[in-house]
Amino acid sequence: MNASVPFSVSDAAAWTTAPVGESTKYRRGVLGVATGSAAYPGAAVLGVDAAVHTGVGMVRYAGPDRAGDFVLMRRPEVVVGTGRVQAWLVGSGISAGSLGELDPATAEAFRHASDDGVPVVVDAGAIPLVDLGPLAVLTPHAGELAALLDTDRETVEHDPRGSALRAAEQTGSVVLLKGADTHVVTPDGSVDLVASAATPWLAAAGAGDVLGGVLGALVATRAAQGPLTPEDLAHLAATAAVVHGTAARRASDGGPFPMAALIAELPGVVRDLVTTGDALA
Questions:
Q1: Following CA atoms 213, 69, 91, 195 in sequence, which dihedral angle do they give, to the nearest 10 degrees?
Q2: If you average pLDDT over every residue of the chain, what do you get?
Q3: Domains of the chain, with CATH numbers?
Q4: Share of the chain above pLDDT 70, in %
Q5: Of 135, 240, 229, which is closest to residue 177 (Cα–Cα)?
Q6: Which of these, 13, 72, 234, 236, has the minimum number of CB atoms within 10 Å of its CB?
Q7: Cα atoms in the Cβ-side hemisphere of radius 13 Å centred on 85
Q8: What is the mean pLDDT of the segment spanning 205-209?
Q9: What are the C-alpha distances in Å from 69 to residues 24, 35, 73, 156, 271?
Q10: What is the reported pLDDT for 202?
Q11: Which of 25, 35, 31, 44 is nearest to 85 (CA)?
Q12: H or E element, residue 248
């Protein structure tokens, strides 16, 4: 079996989309977000805030009122409710067993994510609740992937690349396995990437919520230019890992940091990628 291909900062630059003179908020991409819950509204706030800071034309948020209130308090430019989007981000902060256990706004958004025919970034909590397939990108950590594969966490951690490949083949979706080294694979194994841009200080609550927002924004902005393939989605997922990890290193400066500090670094990382093709921490 061949080794994973390292995915660098310069590789990420090629998959980071900048607006042009004729851009509008719609042409820059619209991301639908169905994350968070009454119990975990912070997941919605972090994901939406990260998407806005990564650079998307519009975010539509669909979720419970409590989470929506917090989202609007943080990001008043967000539009609440479903509508036309170029991509969906679903599941962060949600652990319902079925659509019937979700609040009505979230359940409606999940149905749109399954039926709209656009790419969907799927946090592990939503894997049983939306239709998967070649336009889905799953973003589990080792424990969540172990549950999906009906194995134990130690098995996944011992062979993260092989575990990600098995999950991609099983689900028919692109898989991004979070970790110190982030593995991204397509179902057929034709794209097999590893991104190593993170800092150990990134192992903290909320990091996955932020990564979802970054990836959702990157996918929506690229999807606004035309249809995406699973191979495209895999490269965008690896790009999200690089952007996320680079922003974390900048926020860290060798020490701990809150997720808000990571999010504040995202615009600078994206700026450097689209202007210089590099983004040193």
A1: 20
A2: 94
A3: 5-275 (3.40.1190.20)
A4: 99
A5: 240
A6: 72
A7: 33
A8: 96
A9: 26, 13, 6, 38, 30
A10: 94
A11: 31
A12: helix 230-252
